[in-house]
Amino acid sequence: MVDLLQEIDEWGPEKVVCVSDARTGMRGVLVIDNTARGSGKGGTRMAPSVTIGEIARLARVMTWKWAAVDLFHGGAKAGIVADPDSPDKEAVVRAFARRLADQIPASYVAGLDMGMTEHDAAIIQDELGDRGAAVGVPEALGGVPYDQLGVTGHGVAEAAVAALERAGTPVPGARIAVQGFGAVGAATAARLHELGAQLVAMSTADGSVHDPDGLDVPAWLAARAEFGDTCVAKAAPAQRIAHGEELTVDCDVLIPAARQDVIDSSVAARIRAGLVVEGANLPTGPASRAALAARGVEVVPDFIANAGGAIAAGFAMDARYSAFRPEPARILDEVANRTRRNTLLVLDTAAETGVLPHAAALEMAQQRVREAMRLRGRLPVPA
């Protein structure tokens, strides 16, 4: 078990709040990592495997993500230990919101992450009687339709486009493999298909599919909409591959858009893509990134590539109490522009300084957070 008291560093976390409810069996945690640049903001995830350490890691990613896109919120994340497919989900979400009523929205605004839907965000708003309690609510309630717009996947695709163009690789015809065909992966595939790229592999929690001649993206998007993760069962037998092999197929761009820690050193040694764009949070670690770099594989860091959701959340945060909906076209344009600009900045800085892109991105974000801490008088007192 991770002892967070031993993990606290100069950045945070500033606050860790654990909650439970005996009647529903709800167990949850909120981690406020660093608020030097603004109030805590980050998604809420639900899974039976959620741990405090996992949520703390993700809250730290949010600290760097907000700073990297130069928007003024602080890093935070929340998690609920529960099955998102349980018939008792609404009762669990309501219990979670009630137990954190002294934190939401004063210190933290709930949002969407793995296992949580727009309906769940609406339930949090309803339970606390406050439109400001959550973002990611349905469009009918004035929210930004994250999944409908595909904001995170849109940004991941734009990061891939920026990196490909920088390397002199034409986007039309570029071969793409996407691990995870959920909200992020599907939106990424849809945008890249629109720009002429070719999807050669994809996966869901139920299996993986590969076709070196290209998959029919519109057909697979329709199958996902109808069947969810089980859509892979509709693939021809010749297209089915072992789970995990989608990471190592021959392609130009690999986009891990599922869960964290999926690319270890062993997998890194077998990746055949020349570019990895991190659609998920924390899909690689220091050892695997070093292994990829040694093989000449460029990596666009997660908190640069997948910051589209955070950028959209910036609009949603402003609109929580407004009678007017944010304009979708403006959101997508801002996601594309900021993501492309940051991708190029990080890759160019890494090349100029001889460090890995993650180190370049982290230094940029840390400089911004450190300056905010200095201005607020929060820096550690020199020994």
Tell me the structural class. Answer: alpha/beta
- Count the helices. How many? 14
Rg: 20 Å
Largest sheet: 7 strands, mixed
- Biggest sheet strand order reads 10-9-8-7-11-12-13
Low-confidence stretches: none
In one word, what is the shape? globular
Helix content: 40-55%
**End-to-end CA span:** 31 Å
Quote the beta fraction: 15-25%
Provide the succession of SSEs.
Answer: HEEEEHEHEHHHEHEEHEEHEHEHHHH
What is the mean pLDDT?
A: 95
Using DSSP, what is the number of strands?
13
SSE diagram, text form:
Blueprint: H1 4-7, E1 15-21, E2 26-34, E3 40-41, E4 44-47, H2 52-68, E5 74-81, H3 89-99, E6 108-109, H4 118-128, H5 146-149, H6 151-166, E7 175-179, H7 183-194, E8 198-204, E9 207-210, H8 217-227, E10 240-241, E11 253-256, H9 265-268, E12 275-277, H10 286-294, E13 298-300, H11 302-305, H12 308-319, H13 328-353, H14 357-375
Parallel strand pairs: 3-5, 3-6, 4-5, 7-8, 7-11, 11-12, 12-13
Antiparallel strand pairs: 1-2, 2-5, 8-9, 9-10
Helix pairs in contact: 2-14, 3-4, 6-7, 6-12, 6-13, 12-13, 13-14
What distinguishing features does this structure have?
globular, 13 strands, 14 helices, 383 residues, seven-stranded mixed beta sheet, alpha/beta
Describe the structure.
- The chain has 383 residues and is α/β, with parallel strands linked by helices.
- 42% of the residues lie in helices and 16% in strands.
- It contains 14 helices and 13 strands.
- The chain has helices at residues 4-7, 52-68, 89-99, 118-128, 146-149, 151-166, 183-194, 217-227, 265-268, 286-294, 302-305, 308-319, 328-353, 357-375; strands spanning 15-21, 26-34, 40-41, 44-47, 74-81, 108-109, 175-179, 198-204, 207-210, 240-241, 253-256, 275-277, 298-300.
- The strands form two sheets. A seven-stranded mixed β-sheet has the order 10-9-8-7-11-12-13, sandwiched between helices. Strands 1, 2, 3, 4, 5 and 6 form a six-stranded mixed β-sheet that branches.
- Helix 6 (151-166) packs parallel to helix 13 (328-353) and helix 12 packs across helix 13.
- The chain is globular and about 55 Å long.
